[in-house]
Amino acid sequence: MALFSRQSSLPANATPTPPAAVSDGRHTRRGRLGWIVAASLATGVLAALLLVFAPFTPVTETAITGAVLCGFAIGWVSLLLLSENFTDQPQRWAAVPAMFMGAGGLLLWVFGSTREALSWIWPPALAAIVVWMVIQVHRDLPSRGGRVQLYAVFTILALCAVGGGWQTVIAAGETNPFLTSGRLVTVDGHQLRLECTGSGAPTVILEPGAGGTSADMGWIAPAVAGQTRTCVYDRAGRGGSEPAATAQDGAQIATDLHTLLHRAGVPGPYVLAGHSFGGLYVRIFAAHYPDEVAGLVLLDSTASSQPAKSVVPAPGSTSSDTIGRAATLASLTVPVGIARLYGALVGVSGLPADNEDQLSYDTVRANTVRSVADEYMRGAATAAEAASLHDFVAKPLYVLTAGEHPGSWMADQKQSATLSTNSVWRVVAGSTHQGLLQEEQYAAQSSQAVLDVVTAVRNHQPLKASR
After folding, report:
1. What is the DSSP secondary-structure string of 42-62?
2. What is the chain's Cα-based Rg?
3. Of 173, 205, 234, which residue sits at a domain end?
C-alpha cells in the first residue's frame, strides 16, 4: 500500500525511470562497447605476437601462421566474454570468427601438411564470414566507435580473402624458372643452385646485393663469361636454392659459398664481384679464405663497420631465434597476396626478359620474403664481419661507384679502395645504385671493371681501368 501511495504521489507529467536504465553493477553504458572492441582487438594482436615469439612455437611458416591465427582467435573470444559480462549488448557473433581462426590455426600449428588444402578453402570461407559479420555488427552493435573499428578490420580481412584467392590460383600454375638451368649442390643440409658458363681462368664469382638472385646479373654474367669462367648462384631461400636451417649472416653465407664451389668442383683462385650487400659477402670470403681470392670488385658496395667481428660462423647457430621468427612473420605477406601485389606494382627492372621472369617469380615466394627480411635484420652483424678484411695487400681491387650518392657514401667508397695498394676507384656518372646492374649501359661498365681485374690477375700486371 505504501508503494502504491508513493507511485500515486508522482506528478501527472512525470516519466517513471525505466528499470533498464538503472545500473545494478553489471550493466554499463553502450559507449563502453567501443573501448571493449579496442581492447579485444589489441588483445588479439598481442596474443598473436606472444605466440609467434614463444619458444615452443616452431620457426616454420605453418606454425607461425597457426600462432597468428590462434592469437587473433583469442581476441575474438575476448570480445565475446567482455561484452557478455560487462555490457547489456553481448556480441555473441564473435564466437564464429573465434572458432574459424582458432580451428584453422590449430590445424596449421599441429598438422602443417594441411596448408595446401586450406589455401583453397580459407579465402572463400573468410569472405563469407566477413559478409556475415558485417550484418551481425550492423544489427547488434550500437556503438559507433566499435562499428568503425570492426568495419576497418573487416575491410582488411576481405582484402586478405581476395588476395589469398588470387595468390592461390596463380601460384598453382607456376613453375620455378630458375631450375631450367644450372645445377643443385647440397650444402649443409640444403641445396644451392649454381650456374657456371664460359671458360678460362681465373673463375669469376658474381654476388648480388641484398634480396638479389642470380637473375640480377643478367647483363653482367654473359659479358664476363665471354672471356673467362663465370659463376652465379642463389643464396639460401631464394631463386632456385632451398632455405637453410642455419642463421644466414655474412659469415655463414661466405662459408656456404666456399663449400658450394668446392663440392661443385669449381677451381680457384677466384675473382669475386659483389654489388651492394654482396660487396660485404665477398670481403668476408676474402678475409676467411685469402689464399683462394685473386681479386675483388666492389660494385657500389655497402660499407663495412667497426669493430670487426669474426668471419667464422658460430657452431650450432640456427634460425630458431628472434630474427628468424620475425623474418618468418614477414613472409606471411605472401599467402594473402601482398607480396604479389608489390611485385606487380614494382614492374620491370630493365634486365633481359628471361631474367625479368625469374625476378617476377621470386618476388612472390614466401621463402624469398623470409630470407630477404632475415638478411636485412642481420645486416649490422654482416657489416662488422666485412671489416675483418682490413688488408688486401697488393691484389687487384676495383671499386666502382654509382654517381648518384651523397658525400658520405662517396667517402666510404674511397676508403674501401685503400684496402689494397693495387686498386682503382672510379665513379660512374649518371648511374644509380641499381643501375650498375639493371641498366645495360651502366652494367657494361660493371662488366668491364670485372674484366679489368681478370686481366690484371691473368697477366700478373698492375690493375688498370679501361674506359
Report:
1. HHHHHHHHHHHTSTTS-SSHH
2. 30
3. 173
Number of residues assigned to the chain: 467
Is 377 contained in some domain?
Answer: yes
d(CA 6, CA 10): 7
The whole domain housing 434 covers 188-311+361-459
SS3 238: coil
**What are the tens digits of pLDDT across the range 409-467?**
999 999 999 999 999 999 999 999 999 999 999 999 999 999 999 999 999 999 988 86
Residue that has been written with the C-alpha cell 606471411 in this structure: 332
**Cis before residue 142, ω within 30 degrees of 0?**
no
β-pairing verdict for 190-197 and 423-428: unpaired
Taking the C-alpha atoms of residue 68 and residue 367, their distance in angstroms, rounded to an integer, is 18
- 276 and 379 together in one domain: yes
How many domains would you assign to the chain? 2
Q: Judge if 152 and 231 occupy the same domain.
A: no
- Find out whether 108 and 55 touch, Cβ atoms under 8 Å: no
Instruction: Kindly state whether residue 14 falls inside one of the protein's structural domains.
Output: no
Residue 27 within any structural domain of the chain: no
Single pTM value for the model: 0.84
Query: Which cell is 90 given?
Result: 553481448
Same domain, 217 and 83: no
Report the phi/psi class of residue 363: left, alpha or beta, with left for phi > 0 and alpha for psi in -120 to 50.
alpha
